[in-house]
Amino acid sequence: MVRFEVHFAAMRQTTLRAPPPPNRVARGAQAGAEARAKIGAKSGKTGAKAGWAALCAFAVERNGATPIFRQVYLQMRGAILGQRLAPGAKLPSTRVLAAELSIARSSVIAAYEQLLAEGYVSGRVGSGTYISADLPEPVERRPAGRRPPASVSPPLSPQARAFAALGAVAVEDEDRPFTNARVLIDTRTIELWRKLSQELFRRFDPIHRGYADARGLIALRRAVCDYLGAARGVRATPEQIIITSGTQHAIDIATRVLLSPGDEVWIEDPGYPMTRRALAAAGMEIRAVAVDAQGLNVRAGLRTAPKARAAFITPSHQYPLGIMLAMNRRLELLAWTRETGSWIVEDDYHSEYRYAGRPIAALQGLDEAERVIYVGTFNKVLFPGLRLGYVVVPPPLVQSFAGARFLLDRQAPTLSQALVAEFMRQGYFAAHIRRMRLLYRDQRDLVVGELQRRLGTRIAVTAPEQGMHLVAYLGDGLSDVVLEAALRERGIIVRALSRMYLKAPPRQGFLLGFTGFPRQVIAPALAQLARVVAAKPRL
């Protein structure tokens, strides 16, 4: 029986045979009867007879989407694993089984070969094909015909439950206004991107044919270093910069390197939900610190958890409220890190889009003790599909962060890195920011003006000086959660502000992203939003 591997190697095609023509039906039935007789004659054991009966009762769907050979293979594998075919039992020849099932012999040969390759059967020269005798016993024998309920799931670890909760919120409704973090790209940027891409692929540097430095391409790290020094007041060398896939990736690396499960950490209240969830999934003890008109209340944090190991903050444009951390608070925070040896993870999201005055200097530039981890991203300033960001770390931590980055997914895509590096080197990045800043400011003013005109005292909204979203505070008696659901039913996406609070008294309001949609989409969506809000009776 082993010889079928050689003689029928060319017959592994999975093309289905049509049903036998009428003049062959009788011959097929006769062959099937002869096959059953041969099987019964060769088997002297009652259990084997029962097994062969199950084997010959296989159901083959000739016009189904699954090839016939695979149907036979799957049914035989199931019979072997369920021990309806006993270990050590001999299989019928390919000719006999093909005749019994009225299918092409090549289909049976292909099924046998697959079973042989996977170790379910073994061949003996001059003897035949047998069920492997060394397969393990089933863990649990079930009564014939019974299957476990489809709804039964294995018990989940705490980490699995935490990640499952994240999965429920991981998909954004990116095609509907006013989704946050959505961007527009003008035709100038698109043409430049296409031009640079063509040049990149034409050259196709040898670096793309192998693995590269886990920290990122040196050309991109130099470009990022120059940009951050000029635009954000960050003090660093290219060696301190590690390219990530974005802000969330950088925060994950920082958590792994700096912290251990059970460590206390400060987060802003209200704050960015994904940071909170990431820290909770990593087993951190979260301590919510209230945010007031001056930003994070450092003294409240000292009262709550004076020995916390890290503070995760958004000092330049607090998420979600848009408040800038006051200078006295910045100095208090840095003093706390020097005294306790704690860390600050500075998420500088949306820093490129400041619509009034000069950009605010990063907290990292004030740090003399090297306790600040600075996080930024290209995904908001260019487009989220790029999946590139960066983290600036103190020199003593560079190797630790690089090792963690290597372990997680080795490196960022070199093609994307090379493209962004060239985009920055030729001055296109700065020009793109200037153009989009003007466009986004115009869209911000449109949204603010329309909300104020249409809803009056039902909401309170001011134009933010920075960022890609604004906060509309609701009047008394209006529920942001209720309005969030009502607007979603009408194709409009807002985020309820009250959901972002942990312990501080929540305010009612919602977040609207104003950067991802052209004016012709924004205007009618605002009209619909205003109708929904105006129609909701006060509670």
Structure description:
This protein starts with a helix and ends with a helix. 43% of the residues lie in helices and 12% in strands. It is globular, with a radius of gyration of 33 Å. The chain has helices at 4-7, 22-42, 46-56, 68-81, 94-101, 105-117, 158-167, 187-203, 218-231, 247-258, 273-281, 298-304, 327-340, 398-409, 414-425, 428-455, 480-489, 519-535, and strands spanning 121-124, 128-131, 241-244, 264-269, 285-292, 295-296, 310-313, 343-347, 372-377, 389-392, 459-461, 469-474, 495-496, 509-513. The protein contains 18 helices and 14 strands. The protein folds into 3 domains: 4-131, Arc Repressor Mutant, subunit A (Orthogonal Bundle), CATH 1.10.10.10; 205-426, Type I PLP-dependent aspartate aminotransferase-like (Major domain) (Aspartate Aminotransferase, domain 2); 432-535, Aspartate Aminotransferase, domain 1, CATH 3.90.1150. Helix 4 (68-81) packs across helix 6 (105-117), helix 8 packs across helix 15 and helix 16 packs parallel to helix 18 (519-535). The strands form 3 sheets. Strands 3-10-9-8-7-4-5-6 form an 8-stranded mixed beta sheet, sandwiched between helices. The chain has 539 residues and is α/β, with parallel strands linked by helices.
